[in-house]
Amino acid sequence: MNEAQLYGVCGAGLVGIGLYGAILGRSTLRRLLAFNLVGSGVFLIFGAIARRGGLAGGAQSDPVPQALVITGLVVAFAATALAVALLIRLATVAHEAASAAATPGSTDDPSTPATASQGRGERGPGHVGAGHS
Amino acid sequence: MTLLNAIDPWLAGPRSAELLFPTLALPVLGLLLAPLLGARWARLLALASLVVGLVLALACTAALVAADAPLVYALGGWAAPLGVELRLDGPAALMLLLTAVLLLLIGLHAAGEFSVRAAGRRATLAFWTLLLGVWAGLDGLFLGRDLFNLYVAIEVLTFSAVPMVCLKGHAAQFQAAFQYLLFALLGSALYLLGAGLMLGVHGTLDIAQIRVALDAVATHPPDIGGDARAATLAAVALMSTGLLAKTALMPLHLWLPPAHGGAPAPASAVLSALVVKGSFFLLFRLWLDLVPDLPQLHVGLLLGGLGVFAILLGNLMALMQARLKLLVAYSTLAQIGYLFLLFPLASGASGGPAATAALIQVVSHALAKASLFLLAGRILVAFGHDRLPALDGFGRAMPATLLVILMAGLALVGLPPSGGYLVKSLYASAAADLGAWWWPPALELGGLLSAAYLARILSIALSPAPASGTGTGAAAGGGHILRAPITGLAAPALLAVCALLLGLLPPALFSVMDVARPGMGSATAVAGVMLSALTPSGFWRSAGPVLTVALVVVLFHSAGESAWGRRIASIGRGVAGFEGWLRQWRTAGALLLLFLLIQVWTSIG
Amino acid sequence: MSLADAFTAVFVSLGAFFFFAGWVGLVRFPDALSRLHALSKADNLGLGLVVIGLLPQASWPFGTLKLIALWLVAVLVGGASAQLLAGAIHAQAAETSTGGEPGRGTEAAPGANGNDKATS
Amino acid sequence: MTGFLLIAGVFILLTVLLGLVRVLRGPGDAERLMAVQLLGTGGVAALLLLGSAIDLTATTDLALLLALLAAFAAIAFVAGLGANPGAFTAARPVSAPSSHSNGDSPAGD
Amino acid sequence: MPDVSLPDPHWADLPLGFALLVLALWLTWTQRDRAAVIGFTGYGLLVAIAWVRLGSMDVALTEAALGGGLMGLLLLTAAARLGEETDQPAPGLPARLSIALLCLGVTLVLAAVVLGLPSPAPNLVAPVASHQAVTELGNPVAAVLIAFRAVDTMLESVVLALAVIVLWSFGADRAWGARPRALHLGPPSPALVFLGRLLPPAGLIVGVHLFWTGADHPGGPFQGGAVLAAMAALLWLARLGEPPRVSDGLTRLGIVVGPLLFLLIGLAGAVIADAFLDYPEALTKPLILLIEAAKTLSVAVALALLVAGPPELPGPMPPRQSGRAAKGVTP
Hints:
The complex is a heteropentamer.
Chain A: H1 3-24, H2 28-57, H3 63-102
Helix pairs in contact in A: 1-2, 2-3
Chain C: H1 3-28, H2 32-54, H3 62-97
Helix pairs in contact in C: 1-2, 2-3
Chain D: H1 2-25, H2 29-52, H3 56-83
Helix pairs in contact in D: 1-2, 2-3
């Protein structure tokens, strides 16, 4: 049971725990965090495979799985950043909708656009008029 | 004629493999240039690169047919297993062509809706950049042979598809996009895990090399290769489960209805017609090209069973939907079920007639569904909503749109000479060869159910305006329909006609799919099927039941309240409740893991 | 056992001892502030000693320079973040002690509620 | 020599991992951050010792990087506090996680 | 003192592996999101140590820079803005048992496959070592990333650029020209401003060093870019700088220059050298250096903007659960 196998089994355990949290997590942020646990478990298994290959090939670690993990880590981070942005945006829009509902006076709530974009003939109302560059 | 023989080495000569990397590089280049050019120019860039892409796809197909062998291109000059290779074979060429044609048509249709004037700078830049992103991801999926290269292509596809859902910025769309993102990322994690284990077992990620290693293992006595084969099949089960989550095969479909139902019309068309097919195509590669003996494994039964479940539940739910776009989204779920009948019926090295049926289903569903979603978008624009109960008589206000809806719907139902009919009869002949009598009835029942919801749309469209005439009915309140220009019908009509007349194409064209897939015999299979279809008896044999079901639905719809109506409505609520439970996050997560374990057990056991 | 190895052994074991002391401080001390004091002192010193211990092992000149730079950064960052944490603990302690209504009332903890007119 | 460094590294690592118990049991967020702080510096020290067997220069780079970023947990936490003053639980467990009732968020500038 | 024989590696790995599992369990079970996120930053550091034990220094650097620094910042700012909203009821015992059983099954399958991997582990160490000379790079991982699997690395930096555009598309229509403001989390305390002035210069040096040494030693553009991004985020957090506007042309060029240069040089390779993404013999080293420099810049800009969030208009930061409005959001 060398360290490669030990960390491989540890990675498998992390995937199991992460999946449990991702499915049963009570808040969306917690599920996202559990999803990152699954990711780190997957990459640890890659690391165990890299270590096994490395030791068999006479190096510290096999460079190809290492390169795959680096690429995977960056993609996983980008995915988490998008999920966090979606979460915050979802809460913001729900908050604005609620405050708009709470104050019926507000007429043209820009965040809920007019009926789906008009046909070709007319200019759609409520679009960004300011001439941002 | 110097141009022709100048490009001859590429089209037929030794350098034809060099057509592959521009097919991948072009959409990526467009994707990177779009943000630099800004919203106004991004649209022109996207449409221009789509035209060039179509030309490239045609050139690739011509080169493939001329070479009559797979085109392989080692990127950077490094061959597998060290480097990454691109490979073009029959199915990949077909999918490249379908993607280029469909994205170009949808792009031209959406040019009006997503212009800076109509949708604002943010939505315009986002839509056109994401359209190029989807195209880049799909091309990477179709040409890829390396499991990790395919993973990065899936990520490009997912990162482009999810934001298309929430382009318009409503709270419900953000909720649908978040759920789609998280479930798709769960799928990607499982796929990556499978790819990693494959690297651990075989030391290579190239599908062809793993297939060679597995063939060698199969010939050894089981104890030597035993655990290598078991480990490989476990890795394939992991990857397959991840891809099931991304293909939204029922019951792992929680994200699709809100996502495809809530997205803007052109985005829904791209998502339903192409994005979902990308991950299915990877399943096609895994189970047919990587696993040598799929027909001997029981996992085909599991996937086929889920396909039938999807056909029945998807169509039933579509029948009961109150909103038109949700109805079309659920019909997508049902049509995805047809694709998965490939796995129990695959035979021989390349999958035989079942593989031909699956590929034709991909094409015909893509065409018909893109047309339906674009038409649903027109109705949404014209009436401001797409709630079916409040759309009585919309057919009289928009007769042309109704006609095209019927054509696309018939292609889904599968009357000859449509693509749907080809799919059903090819599957039936494959089932007959294998003696599996229970698959074809499920196909027929699926066809009848889709005829039912088409009839429901028809009866709503032609029903007389309600007595109150308070403007809820479209015909009565004609005043507030916004004139949707007739030119907006060009793309959907063209798509619907193609889907409807797919069977009339000369069978030789279908042989494109056979390149590099020995023993598929698509041309002969299609010819055989179409012969019996065009005879009057053959036509009525399939059209008869469809018309009777349509009549029953129209009568039931116009009859209004009745004892029968209330009983059926209560059954409907029960089915809807069950489907709603399936679409809860925890249930879907549990089912995902359950199917992972069952696939591992059935493919090894 | 060359002189360098002896030097390393002595300093590294001293460093390890201080880490142990830091941990004992974290577990044993009663309230947050004293724990923070014990912790940040002990482990910065621990790291410092370990770095000094490793100096002879590192390659001259870049290895040793990097080790020294490492220790400098660790000390500065350790001090600043200890300060950050202390500020946060004070803010919370003051907040809970003023009527327990966090965030309400004017004399709420300084810093956390100061409506700083920073330019948007 | 590398044997001794490994042992010392393991010892410091064990100390740091025991410090993690404080993260699990720590009543307040401050304790958790302190434990992460200890993990930061202790981890860097253990890393240096464990990594010296493999390649000291690369390990020093990694240690330098960790030292730079170790403070980020505390920075982000305290900055996060500014936006959400009520959510911080002190050492003495406050009765219930305070659901701040004030609508007017002071944080916005 | 006699030279002690090399201790059995289990001394370091068993406790570390066990600690990772226990911490993961705690992250799943603890009540409050904020405590879980703080624990997660600690978890990132532990995983970096595990990668050192596995002998992959490059991945340890990436994990430390991304997992320890930027991910902690991202999740903590999210926890701050979202508060403790729970949108799912506590799971009942049957649900917990069945999911736990399924997860245990998945873990057992994975453990069985990992332990059953073939004994002479198939690997690509020799092929990489033998072909590495072509790329004139000392670091084998860099050689794999920039030459042998160049398409994956190029597509991956395209994904990063695409992610920023997607993040911006989540903003509101009226906020399109504005600046991202997710890092505007209340007035910075003096200690934060001090760190904001102290760390970035050191971080800049370390980042550039990591990029430069990446050719022959562990390091590289992703690691260097991640450190630079962390420093930029620190500057914005300490209000010593402002994230750029979405419509700023230079920023968009910064995001896209890495992958675009990689693609263009790759296409040129198809003409000059003998294949797409191949490098002409004479110009290999300078071209690779140029690509890696552009990639470091793009990764730094993209990661920093991903942490900074979508563009928002100045004004109160609404979604902080002051009302229970967001409660009604059930999937």
